[in-house]
Amino acid sequence: MQRQDRQSLEASHRPEAIRRRLRQPTRGRNLPDAILGGIDGCVTTFAVVSGAFGAGFSATVALVLGLANLLADGFSMAISNYEAIKAQREHVDGVRDDEHRHIEVVPEGEREEIRQIFRRKGFEGETLERVVDTICADREVWVETMLHEEHGLQTEGLSPLRSALVTFTAFLVIGAVPLLPYALPGLSITRQFLASLGLAALMFFLIGMGKSLIYHQPVFASGLRTLMMGGAAAGLAFLTGHLAQALFGIGV
């Protein structure tokens, strides 16, 4: 097994394999959007279900409230993510324009910034000067290097629309799962809630597992951690609904 791993690593680090891999889009670029939308969607709808069950509402009320929150919160979250990514991209564009202007006005100062950045990485003497000359020979490379190294900005993959769509889709798909038992006739309210509880727990666990496969984390631990966080939010909603019913007489 160890020999196979070494052979696969060597094959993936041949020049043609490296060129092919670097041309491809960054893996998992929109995964955070999907994870955020999926977890928040599942928490939102199951929190509504838990609160409704704790308050003694009927299955119809729980389903209506769940669907309303699913659509409204999903859209709100997608818009918020869209605006956040758009603001980030506008910030990057603004800093890029500033760097172009700085190169026009104080080119030697900008060259010195490149020099000091790469000196901190261990380059010295003629090697350092060749690096500086090579980078500064291409204006776009120069500017992009400053964005990454001086400002620590991500310049690739900033698509507000794509991020919003991924977030909204994950929110709707995952968030609808805890509502499915409430759309099935013939089940008691208790069985509907327990079925919704099981499905929500499964979704939380699967999201955590899927995240671990991309980011190379322990599968079971990641799934369990996500399950515990989602369960805590659902438990808080159930407790709130139960207290509201006891204190204010809210319920059926």
TrEMBL record:
Q: Where is the composition biased (Basic and acidic residues)?
A: 1-19
Any transmembrane segments, and where? Answer: 163-181, 193-214, 226-248
Q: Where in the cell is it found?
A: Endomembrane system
Sorted alphabetically, the keyword list is: Membrane, Transmembrane, Transmembrane helix
A Pfam family it matches: VIT1
Would you say which domain of life the source belongs to? Bacteria
Question: Topology in the membrane?
Answer: Multi-pass membrane protein
* Segments of this protein annotated with the region Disordered: 1-24
Alphabetized InterPro entries for the sequence: Ccc1_fam
Q: What is its main location?
A: membrane
Q: What PANTHER family does the database record attribute to this sequence?
A: FE(2+)/MN(2+) TRANSPORTER PCL1
Write the protein's name: VIT1/CCC1 transporter family protein
What organism is recorded for this protein? Halomonas alkalicola
